[in-house]
Amino acid sequence: MLLIIIYNYFIFHMLKIKFKLILIFLFVSTFSLSNKVKSNLLSYNSEYEISLGDSSTVRVPGKTYVDKASGQLFIDWINVCDKSWVTNQRMMTRFINSYGVGTVSEINYSLNEKEDGSKMDYVLEIKEDAMLQQRIIGNAEIGKNLIVKFPENEKKDLTFSNDIIFPHKFLKEIIKNFDSNKKMLVKKVYEGTIPDKFFNISVFFTDEIIKESDIELPKNIINQFRKIKMSYYQDNEQVPIFEQTLHLNKQGIASYFKYDYPDYSLVLKIKKLSQVNLDCN
After folding, report:
1. How far apart are the C-alpha atoms of 30 and 46, rounded to whole Å?
2. Is residue 152 part of a domain?
3. Which domain holds residue 212?
4. Contact, 81 vs 281, CB < 8 A?
5. How many domains does the chain have?
6. Contact indicator for 159, 140 with CB cutoff of 8 Å
7. Domain-embedded: residue 280
8. How much is the average pLDDT of 105-134?
9. Cα dist. 230→6, 90, 190, 201 in Å?
10. Close Cβ partners of 216 (under 8 Å, ≥ 6 residues apart)
């Protein structure tokens, strides 16, 4: 589900504030009505609007906080004729702190994941105030172990256990369990947004259903979105580094995301959604 896709955990030292941005990729995939490819997931373009969410954090005098946040998230998911899934994501966010000082952050992420979930290649690029801070190219493949290589970087190869899955495979696992009797799903996911680490993700399925009324959805989209909550852990920590709430329908489309961090929250609401028609003849 994703995942995708959206983006995942980066620390920006901006004007004495550490901003943790999530590129989550995107639990925004859908079932397709097209018969040109075998996959039942839709190739699409989407856009989300970013704003600062409500927070119950008690502010401590002398500490810097986020007062305003705005921006856009753009996500493409393309089925390459049942051979792989390609996503391009761009997240641009402007923050204003409690002293009135602003900073603009941009994250660009591209992924090519093999259809069977055995291999993926990705490119991650981070900018702050239009200045490039980081660019990483990664190649990951699952065999006896999960091996991650960085062909254009001095970073050493990484080896993880082979029970870790990639983003689009994670999407499929969530959709598969959407209507089961399970109330909880736990998976290890590597997506490369933190190149050296993977996430331990706990997914909680609720019974609450929400109907999207802010935009007109395409006719083939089911306008019944279930509230799902997710907690993201790293290493052996017992406390999640962040929590996510999303509204997801049976077709795998998310209309809403909320990311809760220790000091602030970000809300992403769907603004545009359109299908990409492919010809694989």
Report:
1. 11
2. yes
3. 3-273
4. no
5. 1
6. no
7. no
8. 92
9. 14, 22, 16, 7
10. none
